[in-house]
Amino acid sequence: MGGADPWDCLYHGMLPFHEHFRHSISQISTLLLTLAPTSPSPPKNKVTNLAQLLYISSSLCSSLETHHAIEERFIFPTLAKKLPQFAHSSQHTKEHEQMHHALESLEAYIAEVSKALRSGKLKNAAELEEVFDYEKMDKLVQGLKGVLLPHLAAEEASLRADVVKKAGFELGEIRYLIR
User: What Pfam families is this protein classified in (predicted)?
Assistant: First the structure.
């Protein structure tokens, strides 16, 4: 963090996690396009891409749930003392609730498709539509993306040095949160 403002330590501590979530949702969107009914990808590649899509989607869901549990249990309560956007039933916690609903729906569909694949319902790659509904998955991913990306930007803006200084935090309080 070279010449970075030490008050930005919480922001910089969160950024790698947030960038990972952005990268994951981007990978998911890219893989999903290869599974579109109009995609020129060969059927065999679509099966491989579906397996990757399910794995990355499941990993993202799990990572987000863990990240939010840590934020809500350990970080938000301290920040909420001086930054109301982190309080219970406030901006960021409401965004987490919206995201959790989107995650639950996405996880349920991932489980459904994974179960169908494991059961052998997919006899050959040309029958992909028998176990996977592109439109449904696209809607679920877009729903998550529509909540996730604005939330990450808003949360990051709330963690910048000028915001935490203005709220009256001591530098030690902010550093303690990322110990």
Answer: Hemerythrin
State the pLDDT confidence band at 4, using cuts at 50, 70 and 90. confident
Give just the sign of the alpha carbon dihedral 22, 24, 27, 32: negative
Look up the pTM and report it: 0.92
Assess contact for 28 and 56: CB atoms under 8 A: yes
Sequence-distant contacts of 50-55: CB under 8 A, at least 24 apart: 50/113, 50/117, 50/128, 50/132, 51/117, 53/28, 53/137, 54/110, 54/113, 54/114, 54/117
- Compute the distance between CA of residue 130 and CA of residue 67 in angstroms, rounded to an integer: 34
136-169 per-position pLDDT tens digit:
999 999 999 999 999 999 999 999 999 999 999 9
Domains of the chain are 7-176 (1.20.120.520)
